[in-house]
Predict the structure.
Amino acid sequence: MGEIDLTMVNWARAQFILTVMYHWIFVPITLGLSFLCAFFESMYVRTGDDEWKKLTKFWMTLFGINFAIGVATGIILEFQFGTNWSNYSWMVGDIFGAPLAIEGILAFFLEATFFAVMFFGWDRTSKGFHLFSTWMVAIGSNLSALWILVANGWMQSPVGMAFNPESARFEMQNFWEVLFAPIAIAKFTHTTSSSFVVGSFFVITISSYYLLKGRHVNMAKRSIIVASVFGLLASLFTAFTGDESAYNNARYQPMKLAAYEGLFEGARGADIVALGILNSGKRLGDGQEPFAFEVSIPKGLSIMAKRELNAFVPGIKDLVYGNEAEGIMSVAEKMEKGKAAVADFAAIREAGKSGDEQAKAAAIERFRVNQDYLGFGYLDTPEEIVPPVATVYYSFHIMVYLGSFFILLFMLYLYFSYKDTLEDKIWLLVLGFCSFFLALTASELGWVVAEVGRQPWAIQDLMPVKMATTNIGVGHVQATFFMFFVLFGALLIAEIKIMLKQIKIGPEGV
Amino acid sequence: MLMEYPARVFKFYQDGFRRMTVGKTLWKIIIIKLIIMFGVLKIFFFPNFLSTNFSTDQQRADHVIEQLTRSTGNNY
């Protein structure tokens, strides 16, 4: 077999991005709308008002459509792991096995029991048990997301494991350390709370459409009040967990933080750029200003990243070339250690093949000294650890602007609902109608920040993406990329058509 | 009495499926999707590379180690 083809790596990446971004259209709606259905039904059980029941059944139907179209699209990612990313799959199998198995079992039992009661059990089970089932679907769906996010968190900050150079596998040492890793917790809370925002705007978009058309007014207004309260609380919590994520990035992924803040040169009491346009001609170490235009908040970045006014926040340059005064090792030095680790990794294999146990033990001992730098041994240049700064910077800032705008939008919806003048505020209803698409954009951009921002790593510091792939031909990956493109396009059209038909029918048709 | 419970559960699901309206279309989509995914994509386009090409875990480990240790220089 020949060398790994970089074109294949990029097509495998593109295929993964296509699949995961498509999958992520459905997931946040499921996570958010499931809780909203539980709130709506709770109102029905509490008040006994049949209007709430009709409303709940309507949103539950849309939840079902979204779930049916989205279900199993995530499995395609697992297909891709086995075919396109076999080195990676082999290495992380022991770590991901437990969380993904729990997710599979949880999802199966949840779907086979509580889902069935939720959809088939109206008037056939007690009100209380039906409500319990709806809550279980909401809690279970979100817990199901926990495990996949824990797996993702581990890739961003690999903990609770030891690498076995004889089997080339990361072996789980402490399950709880993996589960409760700060980055995994922040990822779960930030992702689920932002999904609640998406779910809330899904309800607001459709309800605003009804108000604009003057149809199902009572249902729309009730839905808006519940979705706005939930969405506002979720938005505020998302801002809090976003701040926690940034703090964690500063500790575990400082390059990602530097990229999304556009921080080329580190500083004490670093300012945070609230609004800025990057200088597109800026290159690392060229002395040019990083921004063509900027509005900064003094010391904001030091406070966010280190919780201290005058703390040092390393920039891209410090992280690549090192900063002795601040105790930051250069990537060149890490690459030397990494290459030594890879050489010892090879020596372990050779000694194993020749049956020389003494040489093997010595090579393992040497490997352990530099194993934390293993991934750096595969880099060609120190600058390779810099992710695409503009993509990450703009994705992050647009996400933050949208997130802030959402807080205002929820407040406006609540204010005018309280005043009972929402129907007259056409401008707000038009904004609300667009809100779901904006929220989904923000949610997808969040993943761009998280995943593009950690490039070139598949596993932070230990495995670059280019070493994670299978050494297969590019033609195969290209063919399946276009196959998915067509399949996903057809499924999306099917969902939109069924969803629009149901929205047109309204609550009377469920 | 003991046999009554499974029969009731079965009837619950049976009635539920019978009464579905939009659900029938959704089930058709789910089934077609699963057939395409598992019957076509998985079998013909997404074989598990390591499971297909190697028969033991030792061989799989050897292959991955070979991939990871072959190029320590600037060969990519």
